[in-house]
Amino acid sequence: MALVDPARVGMGAYRLSNDTQKHRRALETALVSGVQVIDTAASWGDGRSEQLIGEVLEELLSESKVSREEVLIVSKGGYLEGFELRNRQQQNRIPQNAVPFSTEGLYSLDPEFLKSQISSSLQRLRTDYVDYYLIQNPEVLLEGLLVLDDITTKEDKRIQAKQDQFAKQLEDAFAVLEVQCQSGRIRGYGISSNIFVETWNDNPIGIACDQILSLAQSAADRVGVENHNFKIIQMPANLLERSAFDSNGAFGWAKRNEIRVGITRPFNAYSDARNCSMRLTRAFPVTAYKKELEKILRDLNDNGMEDLAAVLKQCDSMKGEFFSIIDFQNTMSGSIMPYITELLKQKKEINAVLVSEANGFFDTLQNWIAYNRYEAVVEEVRLLESVGAFGDLKWGKDESLHHFAVRWLLGQLDPADFVLVGMGTESHVRDVLALNVP
Questions:
Q1: Which of 158, 195, 287, 319 is most buried, most CB within 10 Å of its CB?
Q2: Alpha-carbon gap, residue 67 to 140, rounded angstroms
Q3: How far, CA to CA in Å, does 21 sit from each of 13, 35, 123, 381, 428?
């Protein structure tokens, strides 16, 4: 066994921001330790993810601690949200053919919008080029086109026309990226998707592998390029979601066509068996949960905050119903915290100390849910291991689950491929780089 090659573990910068010092230190540590792939996107953190990468890389380059050729920057475009959306709305510059993907965001592959996103990314990243620029989740556009015409079943005969419309927009986007390759602003391009399928017969809103390269070559022909520059895909895969490696999966297609692969979501899995999301990282039991709950309920009731105590008690009664941490966080932000905010607005006086304690209890509750889900994850992974789902690979007795998850993925990939891991602190970086592989 030997330490993992840092070049095969990329740093996913989804949660990184230039206003958080620990993120800055984590990125610096990763780069000087030999991590080469840094994955970001124009929309992540309203551009602050890219800004952090640009600031840190500029500093390390000036100190000769890394060279630009050693770092592989991947960025992505397609989403329009946050500050950029508000700015474009004020200027009446919403891209053509944009579709809503949420109440607060749009998605577009409009050529002018895409070129603008690349320019903004290069400025934030403080570089003349990105190594790969990806269309981010283009299935969002396809699904949006279907929703706009109220197409809800794959038997609807209008689907083909929408798929053709989508393919045309994707080819137009590829043509933009081919021109960007010729100008040197990007070195190659590709797609990051959660739904790669062999053909649209498998899933009408998936990204059909049998279409991609013909669209890329058509785009190259349109702009006078002999061979297309479609060079990479990113897709989710993990211990519980292994279909990408099936005989008809996206990984096999990519290798047959000499396409590089980056793996996303190595620790965030969806379990078909349990019909829920599961986190493939270690969690620890919360030993003082009951005692902490009893104390905060008593303090709230003794100080005239019975209504807030009732909310906490209700959350406790529901704790076993949350499928995942994400489910819990969505419930908190979507309904529980807004409700608590309204409760507090109605009070003449607020005991800030008790409110702070109540917020602290929600952190404890989240840790309880995390451990509860972790036990279910361990049970499922052990079951899959017992039936040979991971081949000859065995989960070591003292090995962390996330190390085993990365080790299995690296065993499926070619040497040029990589696994993207979120590493928000220096300790996370060191932990991942301490992984032992054959």
A1: 195
A2: 36
A3: 14, 19, 21, 35, 15
The Cα–Cα gap between 249 and 238 comes to 14
Distance CA 34, CA 42 (A): 24
The Cα 153–Cα 144 span in angstroms is 14
Which residue do the tokens 């989804």 mark?
14
Which residue bears the tokens 């290069």? 122
Short-list 225, 17, 50, CA closest to 130? 50
Q: Please give the model's pTM, rounded to 2 decimal places.
A: 0.86
Is there a contact between 210 and 198 (Cβ–Cβ < 8 Å)? yes
Tokens standing for 433? Answer: 């780089």
**Diameter of the chain measured on Cα atoms:** 77
Compute the residue count for the chain: 438
Distance, CA of 432 to CA of 406 (rounded, Å): 9
* Contact criterion met (CB below 8 Å) for 125 and 50: yes
The percent of residues in the chain predicted with pLDDT above 90, rounded, is 76
Q: Phi and psi of 159, rounded to 5°?
A: -60, -45
pLDDT for 91-128, tens place per residue?
999 998 999 998 889 999 999 999 999 999 999 999 99
- Tens of pLDDT along 199-234? 988 888 899 999 999 999 999 999 999 999 999 999
Q: For residues 414 and 255, give the distance between their C-alpha atoms in angstroms, rounded to a whole number.
A: 9
Cα gap 196→254, rounded to integer Å: 11
How many C-beta neighbours within 10 Å does residue 221 have?
Answer: 13
Q: pLDDT tens, 145-202?
A: 998 888 877 788 889 999 999 999 999 999 999 999 999 999 999 999 999 999 988 8
Contact 137, 78 (CB under 8 A): yes
Asked if 234 and 262 count as a contact pair (C-beta separation under 8 A), the reply is: yes
* SS3 category, 16: coil
* Residue 38 backbone phi and psi in degrees, to 5: -120, 120
CA 18 – CA 30 distance, rounded (Å):
16
Cβ contact 231:186 at 8 Å: no
Query: Distance between CA atoms of 189 and 213, rounded to whole angstroms?
Result: 12
What's the distance, Cα to Cα, between the start and end of the chain in Å? 4
Task: Name the DSSP class of 227.
Answer: S
**In terms of Cα–Cα distance, which of 64, 203, 79, 65 is closest to 134?**
79
Residue 350 tokens read as 């607020």
SS3 188: coil
